[in-house]
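REVIEWER CHECKLIST
Item 1: Sequence provided? yes
Item 2: Single chain? yes
Item 3: Sequence as submitted:
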Amino acid sequence: MKRNILIFVVLILVLVTPVAALAISSENFYEEKDEVFDEWDLCRTRSWNQDGFFQVVSGTEFRPAIVFESLGDNAGIAYRLGQEFAQDYPDFHQRAERIFAFARDKVSYRPDAEQFGFGEFAQNADELATTIAHEGFAYGDCEDYAILLAVMYKGAGYRSAAVLAPEHAAVLVHLPEYKKASRSLSLDGESGWVWAEATGGNNPLGWLPERYMGAQLAAYEVTDEAIALAPSGKSSTVVTPKGDSAGIHISPFFGVILFMGLISLFRRRRR
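Item 4: Structure as written out by the authors:
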């Protein structure tokens, strides 16, 4: 009897052990002058300058370099997710909506300072997608949603663009015949671009916040190019999310096993 109780105590401890340890973004980071860089030599804690994750030069000029960590020869799980949506949803508009809903529903908004302890810390698309695959959900802020969506849409056969608004980031997807969007936008004189704002739990694809309708926006259409890894040799550091370290997440499957096992144990004890 004591042995059975011990087994179930161990099982409970395993099941309720915080799973945030799985959410380590990468072990291939290094620190330099209080900033964190990745293996592509992009600064994850800063968006501006040529080594920033968005390479922001001005209010209208930027290049979302971090997106190219998950495209082309660097394509990984996020790009493959887009490809899977293309197989599962042949309808072009439905597929776009399902990809948008995936990012909206699988990622919960959390500021970087709360999650990582940095005022800014960008995750690339594969890091976020890997966390979702392991845990069923992930945390991120606006640029994380945008990076994930930009890559998934490319994998699913769409044209996508990263867009920067004042203190905000989102994605544009090219859907010329999409009728559900609150407003169709133009990029470099080409119409048919739809705003993808996944940071709100009830947002539909195509909803554009009013505060950005007259704002100065900068957009960059992404391609399937990839950026090269930087030479190795620098001391690595590990960035671990702080957010849900005390949270308890039990797989429904193992939860049922635990529940049935406890019932069996108590029945034996009553006899």
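Item 5: Key structural point noted by reviewer: The longest strand covers residues 26-32.
Item 6: Recommendation: ____
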